[in-house]
Amino acid sequence: MLSEQQFALIEQSLPLVANVGVGVTEHFYARLFEHNPEVKHYFNLSNQQSGKQPFALFSAIARFAKFLGEPEKLDTLKKQIAQKHVALTIKPEHYPIVGTHLIATLQELFPEDFTKDIEAAWTAAYLAIADLLITEETGLYAQNAAAVGGWDGTRQFQITRIEQESEQVKSFYLAPTNGGPIVGFTPGQYLTVQVQPDDQAYRQMRHYSITGIFDGQYRISVKQDGVVSGFLHKASIGALIDLTPPSGDFTLKTSSNPKVFISAGVGITPMVAMLGHLVEMKSSTPCHFLHACQNEAMHSFKEWLNGVSQKTALVDVIHWYEEQSDYATFTGFMNLHDVTNLPIKDGEFYLCGPIGFMKAIYKQLTALGVSQSQIHYELFGPHSDLAA
Ligand SMILES: NC(=O)C1=CN([C@@H]2O[C@H](COP(=O)(O)OP(=O)(O)OC[C@H]3O[C@@H](n4cnc5c(N)ncnc54)[C@H](O)[C@@H]3O)[C@@H](O)[C@H]2O)C=CC1
Fold first, then answer.
1. How many CA atoms lie within 13 Å of 86's alpha carbon, on the beta-carbon side?
2. Which H/E stretch holds residue 8?
3. In a 3-state reduction of DSSP, which class is residue 6?
4. Distance (Å, rounded) from C-alpha 100 to C-alpha 188?
5. H-run or E-run covering 358
6. Which helix (H) or strand (E) holds 192?
7. How far away, in angstroms, is 292 Cα from ligand 1 center?
8. Rounded distance between C-alpha atoms, residue 216 and residue 175, angstroms
9. Is the CB of 286 under 6 A from ligand 1?
């Protein structure tokens, strides 16, 4: 545990870690990858190039350190990060590696501000953070291993069926090569695919929302826009991939409150799982399914949604296309003022899509009087706060 004095030193030096610039994150990752290139298997190297991941790591550490004395405030963040770490097969031995390079970076770049006392306080804080996460992650690994159809680490799967859902999205059905059952998922969760394409020096891992389980096989639906999605889109039936078990805490709540699913582009995928589950359960919960995309050709799961809305009056399906079309309910970006019957007071609102879309919709929802606690969302990639 940190001493009173160490808490004070953390507080004092927090801006140093919370507001690091590109120079600091570049120094840290260059150091980390030079000394421990093996950890490159665990980092999304595309996020490294875009510069998103580096800031996420430093800001998460700063947030943890700030609330170490009030651990109840860290519960949500701890759970979110642990889910991602378990999906990426991060293990206790990785923590000292990151910790060493983090402290060394601060020492090297801020020799005057990062005094010996401050260094000792941050070392103690990092150990405490690692301890919190390792405990949470150990529990999740054990849970995954003990579940019926569950597994620890990775399990090999084979692509058994491929379906084109729209111009750029394909669904892949995945069966375990060792047979046997597969663990279920909570609608909204994702699977993590591990592959090493021929042109890549490191294994790469990406999360993809599960869009359902059919005949004992997972279905994921993937847009072609990166290293792993490119690998999948080129793959044929019979191709082998490794998966870690379903993970993620952006999940459908079990309450009977009306649900409002709001997505854009390939962000439709977790919503398909959530609505699919309610339909399968013959739920009497009223649902609104609001979706935005470029045009009809890009509209994934269009026929399926049509079928669902024709079968039940409980599901209200509305879509916005950027381009003019007879099929669209509305043209342009999604505007929630177009919808008059949203359950503002008691609805649960689920959001998924590109960041610009999420920010715009979050703002619209709060302006309509929806409270923050009613809004659930997930950002693929490094976590950030929509309200910020
Ligand atoms: N479970 C998850 O968290 C998942 C997250 N995603 C995220 O969703 C994103 C999906 O992206 P794409 O399909 O490539 O989307 P996209 O770039 O094709 O855009 C889809 C639609 O979003 C709307 N949009 C885009 N920018 C907007 C803005 N600034 N304001 C208002 N509306 C806007 C437009 O209607 C556009 O047609 C991915 O980048 C990924 O981050 C995707 C799948 C699952």
1. 28
2. helix 4-18
3. helix
4. 35
5. helix 355-368
6. strand 190-195
7. 8
8. 7
9. no
Give the span between the Cα atoms of 317 and 219, in whole angstroms. Answer: 23
Question: 29, 95, 350, 362: which one is catalytic?
Answer: 95
Nearest ligand 1 atom, CA 188: 1
- At 146-192, the pLDDT tens digits run 999 999 999 999 999 999 999 999 999 999 999 999 999 999 999 99
Q: What does the alpha-carbon distance between residue 61 and residue 117 come to, in Å, rounded to a whole number?
A: 18
pTM of the model: 0.91
Task: State yes or no: ipTM above 0.95.
Answer: no
The rounded distance, in Å, linking the Cα atoms of 313 and 305 is 12
With a CB cutoff of 8 Å and minimum separation 6, the contacts of 154 are 89, 194, 242, 243, 244
At 278-329, the pLDDT tens digits run 999 999 999 999 999 999 999 999 999 999 999 888 999 999 999 999 888 9
Question: Domains in the chain, start-ordered, CATH in brackets?
Answer: 4-146 (1.10.490.10), 155-247 (2.40.30.10), 259-377 (3.40.50.80)
Q: Which residues does residue 319 pair with via DSSP β-bridges, in sequence order?
A: 291
Q: Which amino acid is at 332?
A: G
How many angstroms separate the CA atoms of 26 and 48, rounded? 9
- State the amino acid at position 237 in one-letter form: I
Q: How far apart are CA 197 and CA 171, in angstroms?
A: 19
